[in-house]
User: What shape does this take?
Amino acid sequence: MCVRFTQLKLRAYIGSAALASLLFIACVSAYGQSNLSQMHVTVLLSSNDVSYRSVTEQIINTSPSQIEIEVFKLYPNERSSIQSDLVVTLGSKAFEAALLDYPDTPILASFIPRRSYERLTAKFNRNDHQVSALFIDQPMSRQVHLARLLVPGATVISTLFGQSSFKEKPFFEEAAAQYQFTSRSSVLASTDNPINIINPLISNSDIFLAIPDQGAFNRASAKWSLYLALRHKKPLIGFSETYVKAGALAAVYSTTVQVGTETGELISDFQVSRQLNSPRYPKYFDVKINASTAKQLKLYPPSSDRLRSTLQGNS
Assistant: This one.
């Protein structure tokens, strides 16, 4: 039996040409997997943003055959009329909506920060085997390991926490110790002057790790961290490709295609076992280096491919 997608729903997100190709691929591959049970999956998007559409397209490319996928934006009137075997949410808003609307259905939250997932599962008391996640953020150990690979001779690593990220401090200190760093950190309050807090942190360390935080790392703080790091000629490890393009030395991050691919693989696992895996960080990721910044800092880092390979070996 060929896979049936809800074409009217998907066309709004992916486009008719891409949809036709996906349907063709799905129909062909279905012949080789007819022994798998049919399954209905609801994919719920937090918005119609291009990043969510990209993840969705890759989910469809990667998901197994003998499956029906419906895609909905986060509106009250857009809900599946079919009983879903699995709900896949993209983003925090979609996950919160699913926790309310699908109390008895397994939910896989994807493209979501770990802290948001933990906050929402605690809020709805859903820390059970019916809920799982693929986080968008990288494990602290992976980020600190990247710092060690980039600056082998560094001894002190520092970071800045805010109101939503200060609970990451034990993980940061543990990872720093694991990779033979002395760790230093500060907490930025809403009333603080970012420059007064960030400047001594960066000037008294060998490398600075930027951790995303809704409060601490708003646009101004991120800008000042980068400016001060370059001023003091200290390498800054960012948390996104955009940050590297702006001048950060490097970053480890997962692309929307990688998130979509791994989400599709998790759907495949669920189709076979009808059980969700434990929440986890992404296994697919990229490393990006700013060659101009490295040159200014007189650093000669390994290639991005070599760095990624090393980090994968320690994941």
Q: What stands out?
A: Confidence is low (pLDDT under 50) at residues 1-34. The first strand starts at residue 39 and ends at 45. The two ends are 38 Å apart (CA to CA). The chain has 13 helices and eleven strands.
